[in-house]
Design a protein that fits this description.
Layout: E1 8-14, E2 23-28, H1 33-41, E3 48-51, E4 67-70, E5 77-81, E6 86-90, H2 95-102, E7 107-108, H3 120-125, H4 133-136, E8 143-149, E9 155-158, H5 163-168, E10 177-184, E11 186-187, E12 192-200, H6 203-213, E13 219-224, E14 236-243, H7 279-292, E15 296-303, H8 304-308, E16 326-334, H9 338-351, E17 358-363, E18 377-385, H10 391-404, E19 408-409, H11 419-425, H12 429-439, H13 448-453
Parallel strand pairs: 2-4, 3-4
Antiparallel strand pairs: 1-2, 5-6, 6-10, 7-11, 8-9, 8-10, 12-14, 12-15, 13-14, 13-17, 16-18, 16-19, 17-18
Length: 455
């Protein structure tokens, strides 16, 4: 197939999952590695960037005036070693598809974020993390190799322990186009989770519970009420669990212990009135959510989808924030910097940021990716309506707090960080820029995020 025959759409608006700052780009859908190489050669002066299922919240998979390579047409599972738990697949394969295929064989993806609708290529490019980082690290730790199409048209097999591997895991697509990957999987006996749930009365109570007992769970996450103030500041619902063993299943569930049946609710409407997520409305939701949670419950059996991906049951849930969209802000500060976390939580509560999707987790050992986000410490993520008055200046102030504590923000969710803050937060940035200049001197691979941050 010639370059001209590669499926291409006219230039149109592209946005991240937060639906802020759309930009116009030419969308190209390669269906083979050859078409991907041809698309890269034809990118033009504005370059190109690979895109998966569009779940990066900000502008990482946008490219104003250039090309965006939709990699979802490359979605073959090439081989499965059911004995060793290894899968070789194209970069456009989603984690949802891997679960569909691999769960019946007794294997699960090693790391999953809050949505299963991300591609393997995106998981590597963002070096995604999940509820199990304190045990399992980021996605890149479980990748045994990947094939990378670089700016000179070469396809390189990249192995862990090399500079190119460490620059690409977390490199936001700026070292090249990931074409395929070999991933080590996690063995499971069932498709259900055994879950413990408890309430924490405030932020200190929550941190104490996490610190004392997280080592006993593979997965751990806390929903936190960021509107609560006074003695209740940082109150939370803590949810922890592991894959349920076969013996824990009731008789009926043992008939098909590895069945994967995620539920699905009606999609969010295409139009949602602005202001729906006001502070009073979110405050009421948070109060009800906290009160309905059990004070202490152990061993509840939940579906994988309910434990890991509750929002995936509502297609297009990002529409509920209205036309202006929303900003997801996620940062991490190291252990020993709990006072910084306390100050930030109090500032958010005083500011009255209406966030009903706010989670706190503990990170384990950092991963080798030069721009990988996790580091040992506490990470807080919150969604805020983008139209909130003064939001930009407020988040800039939080950036200063985070950077001053030696922390960082997550690039896969970022849409507004300043370049000077980035340089402070990511100490391996000079190494990344040097390798990128050597590998791609003409900046064939670029994005709105790259231009905004000087990457």
């Amino acid at each position: 197939m010639s370059d001209a025959e590669t499926p291409t759409e006219p230039a149109g608006p592209v946005t991240g999952w937060g639906r802020t700052a759309p930009s116009v780009a030419r969308l190209v859908r390669p269906r083979s590695y050859e078409e991907a190489a041809a698309a890269v050669r034809a990118c033009g002066t504005r370059g190109g960037i690979a895109r998966g299922l569009g779940r990066a919240y900000g502008d990482a998979a946008q490219n104003a005036g250039g090309a965006v390579l939709d990699m979802t047409g490359l979605a073959r599972i090439r081989s499965i070693d059911a004995d060793a738990g290894l899968v070789v697949c194209d970069a456009g394969v989603s984690l949802h598809r891997l679960m569909e295929v691999l769960l019946p064989l007794g294997w699960f993806v090693p790391v999953t974020p809050g949505t299963r609708y991300v591609t393997v290529g995106g998981a590597i490019g963002a070096d995604i993390h999940g509820k199990n980082h304190h045990v399992s690290g980021s996605f890149g730790r479980h990748v045994r190799a990947f094939d990378l199409l670089t700016a000179d048209g070469t396809i390189r097999t990249v192995l862990p322990g090399t500079d190119l591997f460490d620059a690409t895991t977390g490199g936001m697509g700026l070292t090249g186009v990931i074409l395929s990957a070999t991933v080590q999987l996690l063995p499971v006996e069932t498709s259900l989770m055994s879950v413990d749930t408890e309430r924490a009365t405030d932020l200190d109570d929550l941190m104490a519970r996490l610190t004392a007992n997280d080592h006993g769970y593979r997965y751990s996450v806390a929903w936190i009420d960021l509107l609560a103030r006074g003695a209740s500041t940082g109150r939370a619902v803590l949810t922890r669990g592991d894959h349920a063993p076969y013996d824990a299943l009731p008789r009926r569930a043992r008939r098909d212990p590895l069945a994967f049946r995620p539920g699905r609710l009606p999609a969010a409407p295409a139009f949602v009135p602005d202001g729906l997520l006001s502070r009073p409305a979110v405050g009421l939701f948070n109060e009800l959510w906290y009160r309905r949670a059990p004070r202490h419950r152990t061993g509840e059996l939940q579906r994988l989808s309910a434990f890991f991906h509750p929002l995936d049951g509502v297609p297009h849930w990002n529409r509920v924030y209205g036309r202006a969209g929303f900003v997801q802000y996620q940062f991490v500060v190291g252990y020993g910097r709990e006072d910084t976390l306390r100050r930030i939580v109090r500032r958010i509560a005083r500011r009255g940021c209406p966030s009903f999707l706010a989670v706190l987790k503990r990170f384990g050992e950092g991963d080798p990716g030069w721009l990988s986000f996790p580091m040992p410490g506490w990470t807080l993520a919150l969604d805020v309506p983008a139209g909130l008055t003064g939001l930009g200046a407020f988040l800039d102030e939080l950036d200063e707090e985070v950077a001053g504590a030696g922390g960082r923000v997550y690039l896969a969710k970022d849409s507004r960080l300043r370049p000077d803050a980035l340089r402070v937060m990511y100490p391996r940035l000079p190494d990344f820029l040097d390798l990128r200049a050597e590998l791609d001197p003409r900046a064939v691979f670029t994005s709105d995020l790259a231009r905004r941050l000087g990457l």
